[in-house]
Amino acid sequence: MKKLITLTGVILCALLVFAACGEKSAQKENEAEKENTPDQVVRQYFAYWANRDQDSMDRLVVDDQKPEEDDPDITLVTSLTLNSCMEVADELKEEWDPELYPDPYDFAYVDTDFDIAFEGGESPGYADGNYQERFYLIKETEDSQWKIVSRGLG
Q1: Which end of the chain has fewer CB atoms at under 10 Å, N or C?
Q2: Integer Cα distance of 68 and 142 in angstroms
Q3: d(CA 76, CA 133)
Q4: Distance from the first to the final alpha carbon of the chain
């Protein structure tokens, strides 16, 4: 009987440790999102993309720009490496396109360079290889978080 109680105690301790580790990991992701500079948002987006976490990716995107269903490439990704991620300096920004989002409080561009690979070597819109894309981000209000509005070839 004592062995059963001891074994139960050990299993309970192990479960508590695993639960605490999971909570800390989720807390780190949420803290990274709260820091919320444009390049940090894009870096977090890539981390979620590499982990095939569509729901978390969607949290970083303006509501009306979220896909109605999962991005077709997310389930096929076998590897994704963000090589560089840098916010475009203010003096190099082009004029904001109101078709992306009308009258944002603030906007930013983040240029990325990444390598991606897929099961079968391709996905709609991509094939295995290196890409440079520009991410377009906005703040809707002074106090709001940076959100991704669009991305395209940089």
Answers
A1: N
A2: 28
A3: 19
A4: 67
Residue 36's DSSP bridge partners are: none
Can you give the length of the chain in residues?
A: 154
What is the C-alpha to C-alpha distance for residues 33 and 46, in angstroms, rounded to an integer?
12
Say if CB 73 and CB 125 are below 8 A apart: yes
CA distances from 151 to 7, 42, 48, 137, 148 (A): 53, 10, 16, 9, 8
pLDDT tens readout for residues 68-122: 655 667 889 999 999 999 999 988 888 898 998 999 999 999 999 999 999 999 8
As given in the structure block, the two tokens for residue 29 are: 């992701």
